[in-house]
Amino acid sequence: MTESAIQRAIVQALNSREDVRVFRNNVGFTLTADGRPLHFGLVPGSGDLIGWKRHRVTQEDVGSDLAVFLSVEVKTERGRVSDAQENWKEQVNKNGGIAIVARSVEEALRV
Questions:
Q1: How is 63-102 classified by DSSP, letter by letter?
Q2: What sign does the CA torsion over 7, 13, 16, 17 have?
């Protein structure tokens, strides 16, 4: 299965849950018609899919819901995670978000 096919299936599966929303994060660079650089997306290495997973705060923390930042890097079975992508994943997880590499819908749903 191609990475784009895996990605479409993951988006559909995650967004069918009530507690998760993900969006495509295209990261890149191009030149405008007048030759100026145009960067888009988050930073190089950021996940293919970004969004949030709802988290219920415990009673002692008021009992409200929070959106926890979610980043999913989609890879094929043999796809390699770049150093920038690994760094992104580590930083998101270290700072309270959820960042994973998913090679299948099943891996993504373990979020």
A1: T-EEEEEEEEEE--TTPPPPHHHHHHHHHHHHTT-EEEEE
A2: negative
Q: 45 near 87, Cβ under 8 Å?
A: yes
Tokens, residue 44: 């190089």
The tens digit of pLDDT for each residue in 10-65 reads 999 999 999 999 999 999 999 999 999 999 999 989 999 999 999 877 777 777 88
Helix (H, G, I), strand (E, B) or coil at 58: coil
Answer whether 0.90 is exceeded by the pTM.
Answer: no
User: What tokens does 71 get?
Assistant: 């980043």
Quickly name the fold that domain 3-109 has.
Trna Endonuclease; Chain: A, domain 1 (3.40.1350)
Amino acid at the residue 52: W
Contact 37, 29 (CB under 8 A): yes
